[in-house]
């Protein structure tokens, strides 16, 4: 973390942000398997944090451990559950199909375990996982940052990151994703830390709690 703050802090605008916000507290390893993280991401799509947690907790109660704070059902168990049972968790038809697709993909070896993912590059993981129904690039980037502890992820499509960069650079408009990618390339290999600061800057002055995923 010291190296990343040294690199980022060489930029005057970012140095001011670091001084104001303090050290980065990015949680890079949440202990989940990629399969679990993808199911959580699907459950939370288009929902606020509290609602997403409730739905995912209900799903976890259907797992082998029957624990709302535990892991979700294993792939085999999830595929055995009826549509009625899964919908009772609060899942839409599209999310149900996406989760079943993720379960089957894990059984087929298309979703790696944590240990298997260690030998894959960021872009290889993104290319492989975005082929799954309901899994977009942003979801995989969050998995890379918060589950697999990858240090050089810049989610340029994320509104909060773009807004944070706009404020840091005192721009009139948030940059387009392509422009943001180009402007932040020089901060590699510490762009995950940079993204974390962009989120913090975007949330400054807001009354609601920070996003539970990116906090």
Give the tags.
Endonuclease III, domain 1, 13 helices, elongated, Endonuclease Iii, domain 2, 0% strand, mainly alpha, 215 residues
Q: How much is the average pLDDT? A: 93
Radius of gyration: 18 Å
Structural class of the helix and strand makeup? mainly alpha
Distance between the termini: 16 Å
Enzyme class: hydrolase
EC number: 3.2.2.21
Family: Belongs to the alkylbase DNA glycosidase AlkA family.
Protein name: DNA-3-methyladenine glycosylase II
Question: What does this entry look like structurally?
Answer:
The protein is mainly α and 215 residues long. It has helices spanning 2-9, 12-21, 34-44, 49-60, 75-80, 83-87, 93-107, 114-117, 122-129, 137-146, 159-169, 177-184, 191-203. The model has no long low-confidence stretch (mean pLDDT 93).
Write the layout of secondary structure elements.
Layout: H1 2-9, H2 12-21, H3 34-44, H4 49-60, H5 75-80, H6 83-87, H7 93-107, H8 114-117, H9 122-129, H10 137-146, H11 159-169, H12 177-184, H13 191-203
Helix pairs in contact: 3-4, 3-7, 9-10, 11-13
Summarize the structure in short:
By secondary structure, this protein is an all-alpha fold.
